[in-house]
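Key result, reporting period 2: structure in, sequence out.
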């Protein structure tokens, strides 16, 4: 009888311990709220986030806003209702980020922002690139190369991303600052609306027709580089108009050595994604958290691309995670 009683007490204690242990080791749930996964930059950042979640043992759900603020808000509400343990946020713009942070603060859900940025600092950590300095250095490199070609003055066209994000404002400011210290001036700044190949082609075409002394085009995003190249080729301006970009696509590994693309200022989205989870992990485990982490932007050219292959494939393109 005593043995039976002992076994019952032991079994009850054991099951209670298993339930308690299971609760303590249950994977925490994270959500990645992302602007638009059609954009390669966000796809690569997602890879970094997933890899880091796997490393720490976190469950991850990715909610794509498809560049629609209504959808972004719905995704935020869903994450809050699901009582997730943390949110990694790559918002559509800096203004929508403020709204999201107000909602998550009220729900007591920690947020790490990975790129874009906002004036509302109710976040655990902000992972970013030094967009202003990167764009400035890209502008300085362009000026040097145009001077080497024998141009003493001329125009540079800018195909800009919507300027509702702090990061795009910083890119524009840095690039314009570089031009202001040179004989080369901005011909025009056109903000894209659809980010399609057709839109970029028309914008570049119009600039070529309007400015006879156009010597360069800067794409603030690398996504629609093919249409920019096509427009330049269609007007037989390959030797007169240089193309530079912010960010980089896999094809650039061939295009940059051929000088079809003169240079690219590259961020490190894969590493940014990893760092976002690392900072969230630190926060949840009451370790030291860096409020802001800013990574350098590297200028990739025909002169250094061979030496930068590993950096590009891992930090920039996230190829090792495939």
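The corresponding designed sequence is given below.
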């Amino acid at each position: 009888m005593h043995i039976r009683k002992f076994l019952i007490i032991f079994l009850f204690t054991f099951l209670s311990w298993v339930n308690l242990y299971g609760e303590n080791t249950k994977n925490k749930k994270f959500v990645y709220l992302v602007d638009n996964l059609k954009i390669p930059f966000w796809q690569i950042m997602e890879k970094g986030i997933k890899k880091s979640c796997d490393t720490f043992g976190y469950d991850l759900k990715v909610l794509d806003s498809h560049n629609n603020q209504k959808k972004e808000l719905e995704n935020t509400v869903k994450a809050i209702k699901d009582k997730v343990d943390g949110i990694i946020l790559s918002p559509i713009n800096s203004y929508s980020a403020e709204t999201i942070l107000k909602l998550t603060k009220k729900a007591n859900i920690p947020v790490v922002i990975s790129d874009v940025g906002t004036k509302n600092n109710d976040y655990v950590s902000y992972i970013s690139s030094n967009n202003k300095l990167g764009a400035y250095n890209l502008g300085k490199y362009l000026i040097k190369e145009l001077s080497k070609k024998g141009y003493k003055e001329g125009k540079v066209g800018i195909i800009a991303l919507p300027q509702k994000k702090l990061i795009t404002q910083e890119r524009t400011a840095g690039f314009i600052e570089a031009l202001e210290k040179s004989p080369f001036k901005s011909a025009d700044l056109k903000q894209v609306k659809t980010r399609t190949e057709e839109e970029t082609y028309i914008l570049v075409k119009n600039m070529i027709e309007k400015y006879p002394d156009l010597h360069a085009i800067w794409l603030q995003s690398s996504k629609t580089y093919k249409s920019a190249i096509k427009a330049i080729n269609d007007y037989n301006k390959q030797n007169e108009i240089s193309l530079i970009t912010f960010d980089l696509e896999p094809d650039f590994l061939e295009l940059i050595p051929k000088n079809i693309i003169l240079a690219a200022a590259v961020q490190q989205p894969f590493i940014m994604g990893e760092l976002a989870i690392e900072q969230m992990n630190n926060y949840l485990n009451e370790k030291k958290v860096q409020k802001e982490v800013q990574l350098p932007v590297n200028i990739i050219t025909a002169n250094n691309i061979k030496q930068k292959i590993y950096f590009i494939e891992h930090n920039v393109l996230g190829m090792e995670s495939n």
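The longest strand covers residues 184-191. The chain has a mean pLDDT of 91. This case is discussed further under Risks and Mitigation.
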